[in-house]
Write a structure and sequence with these properties.
Immunoglobulin-like; TIM Barrel; 2 domains; 8-stranded parallel sheet; 6-stranded antiparallel sheet; 26 strands
């Protein structure tokens, strides 16, 4: 691949080209739908590679500027995303994590081996108190994943008590001696992770019985009881949602679901993060869009078993997964993050918005240095990825009210006899009262004109940002941190029509002006 040019230059070049197609997008501002839960934009931090240690945690004695051990540059960048929720400590790591190893003086905490991720020492420097320091610094809610795989009901129940209990219980006094007299606020608590795989290789019926067993003993003050999450299925397997929504529904706020986008569809050889052919750009788009089918299938089951819509569908692991960066520890899951990843992220956002009545939480994998990360660090250096910018552009959709959208005359991006929609769209009424429109162009080569019509609201202009690049694998490096970043975008109505030129391989978010 040729060296990538700054996104703003690519935008200028594309703006001079003739339109290749004209799509119509109708937004009905008079028919508000479900509220897009802010937690759809949740994050995930697992004890994996440098996702925590070095990536965001450096310890209070580090020369890298930090607050209580958490590096200031990373925390500041994440705060700009208005991170609503962080899931911790895993992932597969959660089902081998014993919470008592992570409390008390850090110097005396036991050192274990992280058998899931790289076989490296885990010194337990980041434990319960440190995690709650992080979410406090971010202004986020806490999503804690409990150990069902190697733990016991007593261990899990005592962790919940340690975090939430008030008064003079032994565990409340222990928490106070460890530096936090007041209870922690645990917004969500999951009973296990990937029970079908690394969490125990279970069958749905067996897990449902265990879920009910463990949930029975998770007690907290009524006003501080976390919402409970059942570990659900992945991919084409919807049997977990069927069984759990039927047999483990009592007290369950949500059922999780995991879905990763692999260019090749094969775990043995997933495809490269950079230097890939256009065929793998296409297959990545097709695989990313397939999550809509999975959500629809599982939501149909939930609508049957839970017509009152008390149970949410939580996609608490999702994102791109490529072959690891050559020369890095294969257990650390480090991969480059390109404009392709930003497009994949935005496609997911638009799909999540369309299912806002059920999809009330998602957590991309992962926050720093791992898989489809927001941020990459190297010692004291930090850079923001294209996926980071996609999240930042979509901040107005947090807590917004979804609006119906209709695409007509949509383009098709085709390859080898297969095709995917060229344009993906979403719209919402933001909490500030403005109408926001998001557009994604999956075609890596052709720009598309989109004629926007907003029923029930005057639409004379739009103003926002667009994220694009000249190469399919354009990415930021420490030498060129701003190679891929958003550029300003605006368009005004002409001849009674408001037309938006969406560049190739682009993400666009604009506010409608009357």
């Amino acid at each position: 691949m040729k060296a990538c040019k700054p996104a703003i230059l690519a935008l200028a070049i594309l703006a001079s080209l003739p339109a290749f197609a004209q799509v119509r997008l109708a937004v009905d501002a008079g028919k508000p739908g479900a509220v897009i839960d802010k937690n759809v934009y949740g994050q995930f931090a697992e004890h994996l590679g440098t996702g925590i240690y070095g990536g965001i945690w450096v310890g209070p004695g580090s020369t890298i500027p930090n607050t209580r051990g958490w590096r200031n540059d990373v925390v500041g960048a994440l705060k700009d995303l208005h991170v609503p929720l962080v899931r911790w400590p895993g992932g597969c790591f959660a089902d081998e994590y014993h919470w008592r190893d992570g409390i008390g003086p850090r110097a005396t905490r036991p050192v274990k081996v992280n058998t899931n991720w790289g076989g490296v020492p885990e010194n337990n420097a980041v434990g319960t108190h440190e995690f709650f320091d992080l979410v406090e610094l971010l202004g986020a809610d806490a999503y804690v994943n409990g150990n069902l795989g190697t733990g016991t009901p007593q261990e899990m129940a005592e962790w919940v008590e340690y975090m939430t209990s008030e008064g003079e219980s032994t565990l409340a006094r222990l928490r106070a001696r460890n530096g936090h007299a007041q209870p922690f606020k645990v917004a969500y608590f999951a009973i296990g992770n990937e029970a079908w795989g690394c969490g125990g290789n279970m069958k749905p019926d067996y897990y449902a019985s265990l879920y009910n067993h463990y949930a029975t003993f998770l007690k907290a003050p009524p006003h501080a009881r976390p919402k409970l999450i059942a570990s659900g299925g992945n991919g084409d397997d919807s049997s977990w949602t069927e069984v759990l929504s039927r047999d483990a529904a009592r007290g369950t706020d949500g059922i999780s679901f995991h879905y990763y986008t692999l260019p090749t569809g094969a775990w043995e050889k997933k495809g490269a993060a950079i230097g890939f052919p256009e065929s793998e750009w296409f297959s990545t788009m097709a695989a990313a869009l397939r999550i809509d089918e999975h959500i629809r299938r599982n939501v149909a089951i939930l609508d049957k078993n839970d017509p009152q819509k008390t149970i949410g569908f939580y996609v608490d692991e999702w994102g791109t997964w490529y072959d690891v960066e050559p020369g890095t520890n294969p257990g650390f899951l480090f991969q480059r993050n390109t404009i392709r990843d930003a497009v994949v992220a935005a496609l997911h956002f638009n799909i999540f918005h369309a299912h806002a009545d059920r999809v009330r939480m998602t957590n991309i994998a992962q926050m720093v240095n791992v898989l489809q990360a927001m941020i990459v660090t190297d010692k004291d250096r930090m850079l923001l990825t294209p996926t980071y910018y996609a999240y930042k552009m979509y901040v107005p959709f947090q807590g917004a009210t979804a609006l119906p959208v209709t695409l007509s005359n949509n383009t098709t991006y085709a390859s080898n006899g297969r095709g995917v929609p060229g344009i993906s769209a979403s719209a919402a009424r933001g909490r500030d009262g403005k109408t926001y429109v998001a557009l994604v162009n999956t075609d890596p080569a052709q720009a598309t004109d989109v004629v926007l019509d907003v029923a029930g609201q005057a639409a004379h202009a739009v103003r926002g940002q667009v994220l694009t690049a000249d190469a399919m694998d354009a990415h930021n490096t420490f030498a060129r941190k701003d190679a891929v970043k958003p550029a300003p975008f605006s368009a005004s109505a002409a001849g009674g029509r408001l037309t938006l030129r969406v560049p190739a391989k682009a993400v666009m978010v604009v506010a409608v002006e009357g």
